[in-house]
User: Which sequence fits this backbone?
């Protein structure tokens, strides 16, 4: 059974990513989205560079589909 994607959760995590000043918090925001949409497993380790790039790509595609300009700082 498929779950619906919570758009508010994704946009809130983008906001948290942009407000974060360290890589740990930025990674946590990306990981939260990845686990929510099923692209990442819920693990205790940090994201790899490939996973980080994959999540940023996903957010770009998601926002483009929603018609929202994505600004990742």
Assistant:
């Amino acid at each position: 059974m498929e779950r619906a994607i919570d758009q508010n959760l994704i946009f809130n995590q983008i906001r948290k990513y942009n407000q974060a000043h360290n890589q740990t918090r930025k990674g946590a925001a990306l990981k939260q989205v990845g686990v929510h949409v099923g692209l990442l497993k819920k693990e205790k380790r940090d994201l790899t560079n490939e996973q980080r790039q994959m999540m940023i790509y996903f957010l770009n595609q998601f926002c483009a589909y929603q018609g929202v300009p994505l600004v990742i700082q």
